[in-house]
């Protein structure tokens, strides 16, 4: 089991612990807002399980049916997580509407509040782990889980403030109102997660900064070639696929052209070891006099 899988499995354990604490907080207080917090934690557990399965599938080596590997499984997990988040938001709206129609008293016990605060602190710490390690390991599934937990931490803080106000001012309607605000935040988080994950499934290109670095590296290491053009990139989990056309003198030997390609590939791999490079060599009559100028 690699590091990405261990962190994903850790998310399942943390999710179950936080779910237990937030459920206890809801049962001790009877707050609909805390119910919304606990409902979101149910989704956290389901999403963490989906992420764990996805990173295990993504770690499988290429095979006959999947010669480019299984890395996009992480994007599928992120889309599933986004859909679950959206479902949780509507479940919270439903519970809040019931509370609006039949207001319930809130018992703000220290034990209940303490359980919720402890759960939020655990979530905040694990959120930092997911963001830092997910970005370092270039794992869309871990980063998606981190984004979800971040929205959960923000929601939990708002919930505590809201139910405190409801009890302090004796306004029972504030409890379900805060639950609705939590649901809106959850809904926005889920929609953003689905949008970003679909981009990966649709072969989204690398960001402008990485493309600029790729162009510079090709320009500086393609000595002997004339130009490079039609550069394309696409992301698949932690991998970045790069392909382009390299124009060389028409009378250059194949072995010499191959040496240039090897030099470019080594430089790109030094920049990013998870880069898959494909170079199409062309004679000088195919030059477009545009694209990447070789220094």
From TrEMBL:
Its main location: membrane. It is found in: Membrane. It comes from the Bacteria. One of its GO terms (biological process) is intracellular zinc ion homeostasis. It is a multi-pass membrane protein. It holds the Pfam family Cation_efflux. One of its GO terms (cellular component) is plasma membrane. Residues 11-202 form the Cation efflux protein transmembrane domain. SUPFAM superfamilies: Cation efflux protein cytoplasmic domain-like, Cation efflux protein transmembrane domain-like. The chain crosses the membrane at residues 7-29, 41-61, 73-93, 113-131, 152-170. Residues 207-283 form the Cation efflux protein cytoplasmic domain. Keywords: Membrane, Transmembrane, Transmembrane helix, Transport. GO terms for molecular function: cadmium ion transmembrane transporter activity; ferrous iron transmembrane transporter activity; zinc efflux antiporter activity. NCBIfam families: CDF. Belongs to the cation diffusion facilitator (CDF) transporter (TC 2.A.4) family. PANTHER family: MITOCHONDRIAL METAL TRANSPORTER 1-RELATED. This is Cadmium transporter. It comes from Methylopila turkensis.
